[in-house]
Design brief:
Length: 277
């Protein structure tokens, strides 16, 4: 009798143990999150939405002063046979100047997920404050149509300073998880100061006559806070380090229009940090 009861109890316990996992899965509450394996934080990350940040870099600036003295020399020689026939104002009397230094600023924009591609627009500001200059002279001798021989010497100097710049650009990128390589195209506006000075000396020798020397200048043309637009293009890589914070490496090229005869272009390499909102 006792043996039969013990057998029934053992069978009941065995049945309960065999059903315990099922009961736990069906009836026990979910475990707290701290007991669960965390999902990869950046898996399937999306880049859409607003963002902003700050950047720091180094900018190299090249200024082509070849035509910087043209307005001044053209004024010196206006309405002369020399300028009409040989255009000394267009002679490149000055060589290019280069300089480099740090730049820093901020950026902000908006991205749209477009299938496998990311499209967006961004505005950026950079404080640069770079200055370069050139000084030289050029001498030539020409013979006018009436047989007069003119010796022309142009002596001058020019300088340009890029204080800061702003860029509005469109971006296109290809998200790869937490990485976003991209290219950009846009329009830049720079704020410049310039100072150009020239002296023109002409020695005229009529056919069989006595030489006469004419000196024009020195004449200076200078202005501050001159705004000039240009083309901007670049490429970079954004990398998420948390779901909402990213770091950036970027290269940007800007070609500005002529700043009163001087053509300016910049090359910038920068790093930055940003936040997605």
């Amino acid at each position: 009798m006792i043996y039969a009861r013990c057998s029934k109890v053992a069978a009941a316990l065995a049945a309960a143990l065999s059903l315990a996992p099922v009961a736990q899965a069906a009836d026990w509450p979910d475990l707290p999150p701290r007991f669960l394996a965390p999902a990869p934080a950046l898996s399937g990350s999306r880049w859409g939405g607003f963002y902003g940040g700050a950047h720091l870099g180094r900018t190299s600036m090249t200024a082509d002063f070849g035509n910087a003295l043209q307005p001044i020399v053209a004024t010196h020689l206006r309405d002369t046979a020399l300028e009409n026939q040989f255009s000394p104002s267009r002679w490149a009397a000055l060589t290019p100047g280069t300089t480099s230094g740090k730049s820093y600023g901020g950026f902000g924009g908006y991205n749209i997920d477009w299938g496998d591609v990311l499209l967006g627009a961004e505005v950026a500001y950079s404080f640069i404050n770079l200055r370069t200059s050139s000084s030289d002279s050029l001498a030539r001798q020409v013979t006018l149509s009436d047989g007069t021989v003119d010796g022309v010497t142009i002596t001058g100097s020019a300088s340009v300073r890029l204080r800061d710049s702003g860029v509005i650009k469109a971006r296109a990128g290809y998200p790869i998880g937490q990485f976003l390589p991209y290219i950009s195209l846009g329009v830049a506006v720079g704020r410049f100061d310039y100072r150009n000075t020239a002296t023109t000396v002409v020695t005229q020798t009529p056919s069989g006559g006595t030489p006469t020397t004419f000196t024009f200048g020195p004449t200076t043309d200078a202005r501050e806070n001159v705004y000039q637009a240009g083309f901007a293009g670049g490429a970079g890589l954004d990398v998420l380090i948390t779901p909402n914070i990213f770091v950036r490496g970027e290269y940007e090229y800007v070609a500005y229009g002529k700043v009163h005869g001087t053509t300016v272009e910049t090359h910038t390499g920068r790093v930055g940090i940003g936040v997605r909102f």
